[in-house]
Amino acid sequence: MVAVRASPNASPSAEWICCLDKRPSERSGEDVDIILTRLREVKAFHRFPPPLLLQICACAFYECLEKGITLFRQGDIGTSWYAVLSGSLDVKVSETANHQDAVTICTLGIGTAFGESILDNTPRHATIVSRETSELLRIEQREFKSLWEKYRQSLAGLLAPPYGAMESGSNNDIREQFTKEPCFGAQVPSEKLQRAGKVLRNAILSRAPHMIRDRKYHLKTYRQCCVGTELVDWLVLQSACVLTRSHAVGMWQALLEERVLNHVDQDLGFQDKYLFYRFLDDEEEDTPLPSEEEKRESEEELPETILFLAQIGPDALLRMILKKSPGQRTGDDLEIIYDELLHIKALAHLSNTVSRLACFPLKQRYKDARTVFNQGEEGTSWYIIQKGSVNVVIYGKGVVCTLHEGDDFGKLALVTDSPRAASIVLREDNCHFLRVDKEDFNRILRDVEANTVRLKEHEQPVLVLEKSPRASTLGSIKYTVISGTPEKILEHFLESMRLNEESVDDFVLMHCVFMPNTQLCPLLMAQYPFSSPPGSEQEKFEFAVNCKRRALTLTLRWANTHSYLLQEEPASIAFLEELYGSLSNDSRMSRALKDYLTDLEKIVQLQQVNADYCIFVQKTLIRQFSNGEERLQKKQPIRNQDDILLKVYCSDHTYTTIRVAVAATGREVINAVADKLGSTDELVLVHHSSAGEKQVVKPNDVSVFSALSINGRLFACPREQLSSLTHLPDQEGPSAGSMSTFELMSSKDLAYQMTMFDWELFSCMHELLYHTFGRQNFRRTTANLDLFLRRFNQVQLWVVTEVCLCSQLSKRVQLLKKFIKIAAHCREFKNLNSFFAIIMGMSNPAVSRLSQTWEKLPTKFKKFYAEFENMMDPSRNHRSYRLTVTKLEPPIIPFMPLLLKDMTFTHEGNKTFIDTMVNFEKMRIIANAIRQVRHCRSQPFNPDICQPNKNQAEVRGYVRKLCVIDNQRALTQLSYRLEPRRT
């Protein structure tokens, strides 16, 4: 072991080390005070009673280990107990006597302790090795035993099983720590929250002093109180970042948890009701009013304070709800929990019903002890990680994996009623878990099973339904499709369909995944002339009419939903024409079917017009993804049958232009190039980025041109020339910024024209399913969606490019102000896609590191930027953004990368087919995401929201031809030239 000690001439900052190096008998009262000051810096020691801390100061020693030093080995007989003051140490366990086989099971950080085996002289349970330079506090065996007898409960809180299992019962003490409720009402508020409470109190006294006053209720006077409802009203009016009343409740709850705000009867949950609350500063009588200087400071700090509380408020609200017993939770409470759980990975495979049931018994627990449970123990709860991470440890194998936020553990032991298969050890402090106890877990399974109906044919399941807790308008029981064969699902909807039923919409939106139009159209046609059951002629007639009405209703919804896509399928148009002919004959006999004839006629005529147009005008997309003149034209949807003129470069930088279909595969493109060049060599198609990265295009890749990066190019060459390919000079992007062009343009005009362009691109986009499930599986292009996503990247890089190409500090500051203004106007126009792109561009490392530039930015703009960043906060799966969107009315241009992430998350976390049956729950979740897009586009974008200026054409041309550098390495180098690293 190598220990480093302070020299006699140590600096004042190491004075405490010199004191610890003295023999205990030689330490003066001043020495003890110096050591005590240092120990109080360790948060874990805060809960120690003062007498214990003083005795530790009197008897402890200092150890400093360099990185990689073994403090002691597994099997050694110990002589000392240790606490970690700084650094970290690995805990290694071996099942054999060979130390080479030791496996790291966890890491000890600041505030943890180990070495308790000295209490009964048992061998060390693990090997301890310093992970980095670490400072330890050491107490020898005799002194530690004496301290343990007096202060066992306090010392047990630092111990970290399972590598030091204590026969004296400390594990039970630690387990008890975990099962306590979250620590509401801490005696000493954090400094930041205490300041937040003071700022809010001063602001209220300045802006609305009537809110804090003596109040009488039931003949009793309550001093200097506020009313809960008034506090919520006031906070909602102060800032746009307070999104809802429940959001404001969470912000006040964060203050209530730490006693910065108190309920007069000490209730631990803040309520938006006529209840009395008092600020901490008003607890004492005769508290002086804030001075004018304090009011001014609070006014300056108020936006930042509200922003801080807005970030932590949702967590506090969730903690408050989870603290309630299940029977006390309201419908709104369950909705909040449900929204929180909606994107948790552990629940992705569960049905909506199960997720909602899970909301009911869920409890939240903090974890301060190091072990959640040990291998071999009885399973009593299922856990979901809400914050933090844990190691899964198996005796003899060590750490077998690590679980992070959104993962779950402990379910297997509950399902199989078997002992825990592994130990769960915390990797960090202050982890948060959601917990479902065994009794509740079993009840959920029983309820789900009791409400599930399975239909079989020939002893094989063909349809699984789940009873809905809500009755239909007719009072009958409603069932939801969970899974089934495609044909049986269609049959179920045709038999039980109601016009406003959302599950029918789910089928219409998602059917192409499991039932393409080539299969759906014949089945619908077969349903139309449905054979009649035995009975009277009137009964047969009514039965046939009802069947035809249901088939027509589904067909009309299908045709209206996929109107754009049907243009590319002659078989689907032929089906509609055939159905229209049959309906024309039937409508003469039945007045009940006449209402459908007009609607179907409109659809058939529209499809015929579109089909004729497609034949008459074969639109060619010339350089659609380059900076060509076509960017000035209004965008039209890119269709599968469209052609594109595609430049493909050779290794000598010459190029050939080929004409191929938009959905052409990599093989078709390379064959067209070989034919054009007359080459007999075996060529490969390569995507060459501006950063020099080369990616060989696979032969089956569809619509290869739309996968190009912004400055990327396609190359074709023999495979042996692949390594010698170099990028084109024009791929490097601009060498000078365009600020001189757009700084004279109004920020609002720029944002407006960006929104107009984004809306065109967004309106053309119809390929979410192809993107999620793989366009190769549909042989469809996703060019419209790709173009929209490229635009997001382009706007983001435009911000970075312009800043990094601006050599003057004052001009860069003006640029930042300009971009913040543009972002603000984009948000005003509900263009959240460009809003996010601009803010993400400003947070790019090449821009965010320019400290001299940011320091010069006026405070007002810094506050705006901080508010925008809060909206982009990714915590809790972008909860801040999601809450913002729910408050907006269409038209909206949403943050598309997040919506695609949601769909991909659902797709990858759930099987599409379960035992040959369609997993319709998965279809339903993805359909909800597609409905969000439909909702955003449900109203047209109003071009009159911004009064046109005389240079609108110039602004329009500029925003549609943004030239950018898309090489992050080049942008970083430019950034360092502007502001070199500070030494």
UniProtKB/TrEMBL annotation:
One of its GO terms (biological process) is Ras protein signal transduction. Keywords: Guanine-nucleotide releasing factor. InterPro entries: cNMP-bd_dom, cNMP-bd_dom_sf, DEP_dom, RA_dom, Ras-like_GEF, Ras-like_Gua-exchang_fac_N, Ras_G-nucl-exch_fac_CS, Ras_GEF_dom_sf. Coiled coil: none annotated. Residues 206-281 form the DEP domain. Residues 642-681 form the Ras-associating domain. GO terms for cellular component: plasma membrane. GO terms for molecular function: guanyl-nucleotide exchange factor activity. Residues 746-981 form the Ras-GEF domain. It comes from the Eukaryota. Residues 477-605 form the N-terminal Ras-GEF domain. Residues 44-147, 366-445 form the Cyclic nucleotide-binding domain. Belongs to the RAPGEF2 family. This is Rap guanine nucleotide exchange factor 4b. It comes from Takifugu rubripes.
